Amino acid sequence: MSLRNYIGDRAFYRRLLAVMAPILLQNVITNFVSLLDNVMVGRVGTEPMSGVAIVNQLLFVYNLCIFGGLAGPGIFTAQFYGKGDVKGIRDTLRIKLFIALASVGAFMALFLTCGEGLISLFLHQGEEDLDLAATLSFGMDYLHVMLWQMVPFAVTQMYSGTLRSTGETVVPMAAGVAAVLVNVCFNYILIFGKLGFSALGVVGAAAATVIARCVECVIVVLWTHLHRERCPYIAGAWRSLRAPGELARQVMVLGAPLLANEVLWAGGMAVFNQCYSLRGLEVVSAFNISTTVSNLFFCAFLAMGDTVAIMVGKLLGAGETERAVDEDRKLIAFSVALSVAVGAAMALLSPLIPQIYNTTSGVKALAVRLLLVSAALMPLNAYVNSAYFTLRSGGKTVVTFLFDSGFIWALSIPLAFVLSRFTALPVVPMYAAVEGLNLVKAAVGFWLVKSRRWVNNLVEDP
Known about the structure:
The protein is an all-alpha fold.
């Protein structure tokens, strides 16, 4: 196969950018403000920054539960859109509501009853003699306020996911931009006590996030209901909560592995960080810096994953299977090439960015080394991410479950567990070894994509 088979024409890249650019811009702005938030909390001290980082790791599991739970009906939304079936889109939105409510209830109960124990799993003394009790206290204060953002976050994802799957990618981006601007402004006011407010520290950071989530939710929901000519599925969407039983069954069959995958994947990330935290609380702080900075650069290939799901899903729903295969190959190639360039930029900037944090020199130096590992592995992760979304676009959710979470829990976590508990290996080579296992995952992904088993129209008429 020649190089031309991996490069599209101008029309292809115009379509790609039309879908990707708003998602990428929203993700970049969101993660850039997350970086600013992180720095602001870090100005209060290393212990507050670590407490907030631990809680955000736990909330990350909830966030991905919402993403995973809504991904099942989202597959059908994209294909119903390709088919032009407005009623089908409306039915998937109703199914999303039940999934969101169940997820909120489950995680709210978990955090209220087990929050302190979960945070304590990450607290271990290291070489810098940081205050573990203070870190726990800061974490609990932050968690109790952050629980209030769970409902608006879930509702936002319901609406934003549907809008993106139906070609309306600008509105979720605009709402996200508004939310992050609100977040950064209130962070400055509430964390440091500006404009007559008391300095609330980590509680102020959490309150700012809650306000921002509510603003984002209101924008997305209002816009959708006020633009029924562009969102015809919203007309009468909530007059009834009924959805066809057969569609609900299909969503359950396809969606359950996706939900389990996201929860287990996010849980796996938490387990990784818990393993790394055994090397000391300063490792938690360094990973907090590294992860926050890395996420800003990872936006490139993460946005491409959503782009693959939307563009390929639409083509599959329209019955254009050969075109779907061709464009998927070009999308994956573009994602990897983009990540090579972004990874190089991240490597160049990695010695500079951690210096803006108000923490110890040891934490900063460790964060730099972790960033360099992440930069080197970015193209590999980009390929794995695109392969995952390719498989998911065709409804191969059991395969994606095994490909993603199955791999992590069968290979990566056991390796991290053994290295962290039974060796004295420093955290940086340990992290590189665990992440390097994605070479195996990439090889499996290549075979699965090439096999074309994902080429599947889920919404064709019987």
